[in-house]
Amino acid sequence: MTDNEVLLTYKSNLFDLIYDGEPSTYIERWLGIMRESWNAERVHLYIHSDDTYLLYGSGEEQDIPLSIREEEIRYRNPFSISYEGANEGICHGFAFADHQGGGSLLLFWSGGIKVGPAHLKQIWEVSNRFLLHTSAIQTVHEDERRYRELFNVTEIFHSTRDVRKLLVVTMDTLKRVFPQDVFTLLLANDPVGNEAHSIRHFDLDKANEASMHVFVSGEMKCWGEHVLYAPLKGTQGIYGVLEVKLNPTSPLTDHKMEFVRLLAYTAGSALENAKLYEQSRKVISDLQLINETSHQLNLNLRMTDTLQFLRKQVEKSFQTEDIGFVLFEGGAVMIAEESSDLFGLPSGKRYVDFVHERMQENREAIFIGEMSEQVGDGEAFSSLMAVPMLHDGNLLGFCLVLHRDTYRFSFDMYRLFQSFIHHSTLAITNARLREKLEELVITDQMTNLYARAYLGEKMDASMEQDDHGTLLLVDIDDFKSVNDRFGHQVGDEVLVQVADLMKEVVGESGYVARWGGEELAVYLPSVEQSIGALIGRALVEGISEKTSPRVTLSCGVASWHRKRSAVTVEKLVKRADEALYIAKNNGKNQVVLEDRTTYA
User: Fold this and answer.
1) How many Cβ atoms sit within 10 Å of the Cβ of residue 508?
2) Which of 109, 156, 422, 570 has the fewest CB atoms within 10 Å, counting from its CB?
């Protein structure tokens, strides 16, 4: 084949390639055409990077160098260069300008048809025009493909408010458009991590100068020749930095920079909108929590119900592991039963003591993400929030929550927790006052026994739900003489002694009340008369032995049983009172049953 025939065949094949070829395959097919046109054994392309040239494609042949240093090239003119390195697989070649990256390309071949210098120059000129033309076509094609990707990803950004989906779509798009480069998304103030998609936390302490500059200034910046940083910027702030590590064979062009800038800006705006949407939903959720809590607490709940409800709300809203309610009562520190079991243990009380000490100093809320240096080494819990319960300037107690993970609670959660406890404190205060008032109503102030009316309510309730019960009416014998001899103050002290001893004997089996004056009463629900008589005898014997000055008791016992006859509180009291009357007139210091049997 003559030199002209080689040139014409080469031109014809290039024309066919441009006419019906896919731009993304131009380079590979061009190398094939070079090999076929010259009947060459090998054709290899090298792309300039820094001070070396890197082999394009795979280097499966052992005698083909993967890279060539500039000093290994002998350059006579663009269409006549030679390789003078150690490898023997390549020899002569062409040098072209890289019209996409501004560098240069080297084309080497070995074997094949020998072509004269004049025709060799013509082949170089044709090849150079081909590269110029294909470069322009590839640029248009790549721009079209990139902006089509940008359009598609923008549609997705507008259709979702899922932050994680936005981030994943951004990274997938970049990797699809520039598969040869390496992308990493560094997010600030957001611990969302996804190593599979190269999404990481932006550690400000470890960030390099270039990435910090981009994060602060909001402007793109190159770091060296192969790393680019672009900000994820919205209208209200910068949410992270996109790191691009360029492949040496894929130079940074203006088109690539513009695409990365647009995508980063679009992603930043979409991320900002998604975060604002999440924040608005969070605000609505927080308001619903406060409203629901306030509504529930306004139902005049008892203290136990109030604290149980608060615990459920806190556990649901803040994902805590342990929660403690600490109340101050008369100078004492009381851990409410509704608290987590941890706070009943020495390990939990250390946290209570720590918070209590801090609260006594400044009465301010506490927000700690790493507790190891605060309470002591090796502590199980790292995150702590504690908020004081303040009412009219008085410190009523505090609520604290714990979690084992470091920095588990966000600052927004801390602010919500403060608002939550602030709104709940009034309900806790009201519940405490309500229970104190109830206690005043149902309790005799001198003896701390139940009042007569309260005992009557308990007997009514027992007669509705129990099958039987026993009533003891007790009177202090000759109590007037005690007052006359020792004075009313001593008489009051004796009355208190008797009341305390009676509560000790009865315990949890019944209710002890002051019936009137020196007359006392004991009601024993679901207790047979025989057991009631034994308790009456224990009272009579104990009082005479343990009071000072010594007094004795008279006791009347009456009982009821649903199977025997209908009964009312009034009838039961009347029978017990009649038995007491007999005991008083029969020598005192004894127990008499309603059938007039003397038991002691």
Assistant:
1) 4
2) 570
